[in-house]
Amino acid sequence: MTEPSLTNRPSTGQLVRGLGLLDATMIVAGSMIGSGIFIVSADMARQLGSAGWLLVAWLVTGLLTMVAALSYGELAALMPQAGGQYVYLREAYSPLGGFLYGWTLFLVIQTGTIAAVAVAFAKFLGVLVPAISESHRYLESGRFALTPTSLVAIGVLILLTWSNSTGLRTGKWVQNIFTLGKIAALVLLVLLGLLLGANATALQANFRELWSASFTQPSGAGGGLAVTPLSGLALLTVLGTALVGSLFSADAWNNITFTAGEVQNPRRNLPLSLALGVGLVCLLYFLANVAYLVTLPLQGSPAGASVLERGMQFAVNNRVGTAAAEVMLGQPGAAVMAVLIMVSTFGCLNGMILAGARVYYAMAQDRLFFEGVGRLNHRAVPRNGLVVQCAWAALLTVSGTYNDLLDYVIFAALLFYALTIVGLFRLRRKRPTAERPYRAFGYPVVPAIYVLAASLIAVDLLVSPKTRGNTLPGLAIVLSGIPVYWLWRRRRPVAQTPPAAP
Question: 375-408 pLDDT, tens per residue?
Fold first, then answer.
């Protein structure tokens, strides 16, 4: 027997439907494009050692993300409410199902990604202002460290939290301007790579043996390398772990569903914005990697004296985008790329900060989060939710490394993406007569393929030695929500209410 939906919701005013199709599409695209596309291909290149398989990884990422987005379009049109995915899980399973997602979103998925992107913003600002670095530590205790980098990251979180507290209009204009700017930057990167960066060294090295896969890691102190050829099951296993980087870079597309209560004509604009935003970004990501491969050799040496000798695998600090820009533009390329990535990460942060608070607002309306978070300020935005989110994300910026947060985030996100699309099947059975202005593409085969693929990747992350150390804590965070839910329910009893309106 499933639990009822939740009630006793506090009176809080009303959200304003002020997001049009362009605004919604910019939230999808802007939340996806952060720093990952300029960084993660280095680690993927070390794991796969092959231009062909690197492009396959990005192609698989694009297909999986698009299938998920098209499936979510049906849920978004069916239940265009604030909270998005939280609401879908609540209605498909139970309030516990929704709470576990909201709990994990707050602890890891949303705030962890916000923290990682904020740190990336600060690191690239450090390219222009060397005093902003992680080498100087003001305070340190175990893994926690307060550095100039973390202070800048916290500062930008506070700035964007404040600006989004002033109203939806401010948040959407910041989002539109910065998203259009970084889309233009990615297009420019692709064009410059194909027209200026392409060189015989990279073309011969990368495309002569397109499918010769290998796992590369430094060996010894003299700059030696251990290279393990990959084929068969070993290759598929490594491909699964390599997808962590590309999936992280393409994540957060679902943020528009969190703001569904503020989208105009949501039954049309939500599915359409998901398709347009995800399709555009995934195409640009694939082309950006083509630009990297015609500009830089994929394989290289950590002791290489030039960007071409280091290759994609050993680009300084994994900054593949910066290395490619140096080939295209010479020494100024590093500064140009730093500015472009700062624009990209700033816009990404704004979209994620804007959207995330709407989930905590919906949870608080269900009496499953702090009561004050369920109130809107005089500008009709959940300011308290924005503040709580900012505080936790700021703590995460000083708590660990970029890669740790990445592994936590992508496992938990994959788990809930799969569960949500399974929920699509459940809701088709539970509400067969509900009006569905948009129906998932290729149902039931295409959504089922996504569930299978996402589940296999999640299992791969759990068993792979490279990712297991961070994935298991991520799973523990999800499961820790079960006792928290029951404690919260005991403290704040709820009553039955009809399910979300179709």
Answer: 999 999 999 999 999 999 999 888 765 456 656 6
Q: Is residue 16 part of a domain?
A: no
User: Residue 270 is part of a domain; what is its CATH number?
Assistant: 1.20.1740.10
User: Does 59 fall in a domain?
Assistant: yes
What burial class does residue 444 get, using C-beta atoms within 10 Å of its C-beta: 0-12 exposed, 13-18 middle, 19+ buried? exposed
Please say whether the beta carbons of 383 and 377 come within 8 A.
Answer: yes
Average pLDDT, the chain: 89
Are 42 and 314 in contact, with CB atoms under 8 Å apart? Answer: yes
Question: Do the Cβ atoms of 474 and 407 come closer than 8 Å?
Answer: yes
Question: For the chain, what is the domain count?
Answer: 1
Query: Quick one: pLDDT at residue 409?
Result: 72
User: CB count, 10 Å around CB of 450?
Assistant: 23
* Model pLDDT for residues 152-204, shown as the tens digit of each residue: 999 999 999 999 999 999 999 999 999 999 999 999 999 999 999 999 999 99
Q: Are 307 and 58 in contact (CB under 8 A)?
A: no
Within-domain flag for 2: no
Query: Residue 495: is its pLDDT beyond 50?
Result: no
Largest Cα–Cα separation, the chain: 69
CA distance 263 to 255: 12
